[in-house]
Write a structure and sequence with these properties.
This protein has 295 residues and is mainly α. The protein folds into two domains: 77 residues, no CATH class; 212 residues, no CATH class. Helix content is 69%, strand content 4%. It contains eleven helices and two strands, in the order H-H-H-H-E-H-H-H-H-E-H-H-H. Strands 1-2 form a two-stranded antiparallel ribbon. Helix 3 packs parallel to helix 5. The chain is globular and about 70 Å long. The two termini are 27 Å apart.
Length: 295
């Protein structure tokens, strides 16, 4: 029987794998941002085009670093970035994100708190489009690809969902204009929904697509504040007023009661459809194995 050394135990420990994975992806993202930015400064490309190129290359660098690192470290095929079914999951994921964000805004409209002030040139969506896909890829790799996936291996799907929802909501408390309520909203909406999407598809393309579409529709199309950050350029210039429970106030529509309801319903539906894909805690699996041996 092969003896596992202390060094191997440390390297194979979930916390070690999580920390090293996060560090590698952060470094890849930062280096790609800096190097691409310096090279683009030497060109005559305008601000929108430079941001778009920087976003594409930075996102590609993070995906590449994730695939290379975990393929070598965990000695496995990186199925979470498999090309199988990618078109289906991207299209359906974008559809879900668009629908959920549109329903959230619809409630504000019904309450008379959504006013379209102007319709802007299509070029106005370039920056929010770039931000939306860059953030979606980066956050989903870190939260679902690294933390959720590795925690799930030991503690199971449900506990991993809860932990990553708390982490995701907690991270957004550092955003401008955030409150405890807005952190809870983001934790429930994105933490549960994106985790459930990953369980359902067992790839990262699906939660990335939902995340992207949700953010892009919110900031790039409807012109709303996203996660308390400043407004960017958008297709529609809008004025959102009314109760904070319905509008999200200065944090944006993510901090609304209807967003929680719609995203939670979508999460529950995905979990029901994923019941055969759930992973159970290691102690439950051991109990099943011991029970089977004793039969």
């Amino acid at each position: 029987m092969e003896t596992i050394t202390t060094k191997q135990r440390i390297l194979n420990a979930p916390l070690t794998r999580i920390l090293l994975g996060l560090i590698v992806c952060f470094i890849a993202f930062i280096l790609a941002q800096q190097l691409t930015g310096k090279l683009l400064d030497l060109t005559v490309a305008d601000k929108n085009l430079r941001n778009l190129i920087k976003g594409i290359l930075s996102s590609a660098a993070v995906i590449g670093a994730y695939i290379y690192f975990f393929r070598k470290y965990e000695k496995r095929a990186i199925t979470e970035f498999s090309g199988k079914g990618i078109a289906k999951y991207v299209v359906i994921g974008i559809g879900i994100g668009v629908l959920l964000q549109s329903l959230t805004i619809l409630v504000i409209m019904i309450n008379g708190g959504f006013e379209i002030v102007a319709i802007n040139p299509i070029s106005n969506i370039i920056i929010p489009f770039t931000v939306a896909f860059s953030v979606a890829i980066f956050e989903e790799i870190l939260i679902r690809g690294i933390i959720f996936r590795i925690v799930e291996e030991k503690l199971g799907s449900y506990i991993s969902l809860l932990i990553t929802a708390i982490i995701f909501g907690g991270l957004h408390l550092a955003n401008p204009n955030s409150t405890l309520m807005s952190g809870v909203c983001v934790g429930i909406e994105a933490g549960f929904l994106m985790g459930a999407a990953y369980i359902y598809a067992r790839n990262l393309w699906f939660p990335i697509a939902i995340h992207f579409a949700w953010n892009f529709m919110q900031s790039g199309i409807f012109g709303a504040i996203t996660s308390g950050n400043e407004k960017t350029s958008s297709l529609l210039t809008t004025r959102i007023t009314g109760s904070q429970l319905i509008t999200g106030g200065e944090f944006g529509p993510e901090g609304t009661i209807q967003a929680i309801v719609f995203c939670l319903l979508a999460s529950i539906l995905l979990m029901i459809l994923s019941r055969n894909k759930l992973i159970y805690p290691y102690w439950k699996e051991r109990a099943v194995i011991n029970y089977t041996k004793n039969i």
